[in-house]
Amino acid sequence: MDNNITIDNLAKIISEKILNYENFIPKEINFILDKDQKRELMILDLFNMTKAVSRSFEDKNELLKKILDKIHSLSYTKYCENEEDENKFEELLNERYFVYYSIFNSKSDSTLLLLSNNTLLTILGEDNAKKNKDMFLFWLTFLKNMFGQTYLNRCIFLKDMQEKYIIE
């Protein structure tokens, strides 16, 4: 059995878990979200994967950079129709990551709550969030749990991949 895996193949395996981001949105809710709202959830999930990969490969800087570059490249390929779309998506991604990293670097005890709250305000808009408090609270709980549990599962998955394969 060959225990070698290329960075490209590892990135594809990892990306398959995030590029079908609709899978973690409950079917009962998926139909009410528009394309932009789904994109915001995908960006949050992509950030989640970035954090998990960064933690799992933190002692391997060059490998980490290559894996993350490939994951993001696959995301652009799947969700962008042309170079202009890609540039807009990358700009949006950078804006969101800046905010998300600021929240994580604050070392707050409420990091997941703050992250979920920020994402919800972006998805729903502040006025909508205030009008629909029940829906806001549901989504806040859902995102907080999804982000926390998914992050842990991904770290475990990535550690297993490192134990199982020699990454080249």
Record the SSE blueprint:
Elements: E1 4-5, H1 7-18, H2 27-30, H3 35-56, H4 61-79, H5 83-105, H6 111-124, H7 126-131, H8 133-164, E2 166-167
Parallel strand pairs: 1-2
Helix pairs in contact: 1-4, 3-4, 3-6, 3-8, 6-8
How many β-strand stretches?
2
**SSE succession:** EHHHHHHHHE
Largest sheet: 2 strands, parallel
Mean pLDDT: 80
Q: How far apart are the first and last residues' alpha carbons, in Å? A: 16 Å
What's the total helix number?
8
Q: Any idea how many domains?
A: 1
Strand numbers in spatial order across the main sheet: 1-2
Would you write up a description of this structure?
The protein is mainly alpha-helical and 168 residues long. The protein has one domain. It is 79% helix and 2% strand. It is built from eight helices and two strands, in the order E-H-H-H-H-H-H-H-H-E. Strands 1-2 form a two-stranded parallel ribbon. Helix 3 runs parallel beside helix 8. The mean pLDDT is 80.
Quick rundown:
With 168 residues, this protein is mainly alpha-helical. It has helices at residues 7-18, 27-30, 35-56, 61-79, 83-105, 111-124, 126-131, 133-164; strands spanning 4-5, 166-167.
